[in-house]
Amino acid sequence: MIRESCPYCGKMTDMTLKKGVWVSGTCIECGKDLTKINVPELTDAEIDLKAPPEVILP
Amino acid sequence: MSSQFTFSFPGGAVKQVVTSITLVNATAKTQDTTVPSNKKWVLLSVKAVNADNVNRVITLTIYKEAAKTNVIKVLDSASIVAGTAMQYPSNQSDRAKQTNATKPAEILTDGNTLTAHWASGGASAGGTDADGLVLEYLEVYK
Fold first, then answer.
1. Does A3 sit within 8 Å of B127, measured CB to CB?
2. Which of B54, B71, B74, B133 could form a disulfide with B19 if both were Cys (CB 3.0 to 4.6 A apart)?
C-alpha cells in the first residue's frame, strides 16, 4: 500500500501504479486531481558524449 | 571435525519500487509505503530526491503499523540540497551516495510502514521527479 499526502487537504491518499511507476491520482478525501499540479520537472543534466571540435579523433 | 562458518542470504524477489514525487511551494510532503500482509522485506536502499529549488529536510522513518502509532526507528534525517538526493544507507555528510551498506540490512515485517517526509523548505518553485523515491528490497514470504 503506497500513499502520499495531498497538498490541498493535508490528508493521505492512495497512489496509482502506472507503467511500473507509482504516481499521483485523485485525492480520495477532497477529490482534487493531484496530476494537475503544475511544478517544474527535475531532469538529469545531459552529458555531451561527442568529442569537442578541438579533439582530433583517429 | 573442523568448524564451519556459514553466511546465508534470504531468498525472495528483488524489488525496485519507483514512485513519482511532487513537491509544492512551502508545503511539506509525506509518502508512506506499507509492507503487505504475510511478507517480510529486507530493505537494501532508499533514494529520496529533493526536486525543489530550495533545500529540504528529508526524514526516513519506520513505523510499526500503517496507522503510524509507534515509531520503530528513524533511519536518517538530513537537509538535502535542491535537486539532489538522499541515499540510505550513507555515511557521507551530503548523503548523495549510498555507502556503508548495512549487513544485515533492515528487516521489515508485515504492517510496518516506511515513511519518507519532505519538510517544507519555505517559499519555492516546487518540483516533481518521476523517480523521486526509489525503494530497493528483497521481498520474502513470512
1. no
2. B133
Given this model, what pLDDT does residue B103 score?
55
- Closest-CA residue to A15 (of A31, B67, A28, A7): A28
Angle made by CA atoms B110, B114, A27, in degrees to the nearest 5: 100
DSSP-H helix ranges across chain A:
none
Most B CBs within 10 A among A4, A12, A27, hence the mutation to make, goes to A4
Do A6 and A30 touch, CB atoms closer than 8 A? yes
- Report pLDDT digits (tens) over B110-140: 999 999 999 999 999 999 999 999 999 999 8
* Contact (CB, 8 A) for B35 and B109: yes
Cell numbers 499521483 label which residue? Answer: A24
- Which three three-digit cell numbers place residue A41? 520537472
Three-state DSSP class for residue B98: coil
Cα–Cα distance, B54 to B23 (Å, whole number): 11
Positions of chain B with pLDDT lower than 70, given as ranges: 1, 5-10, 99-104, 142
Q: What is the pTM of this model?
A: 0.88
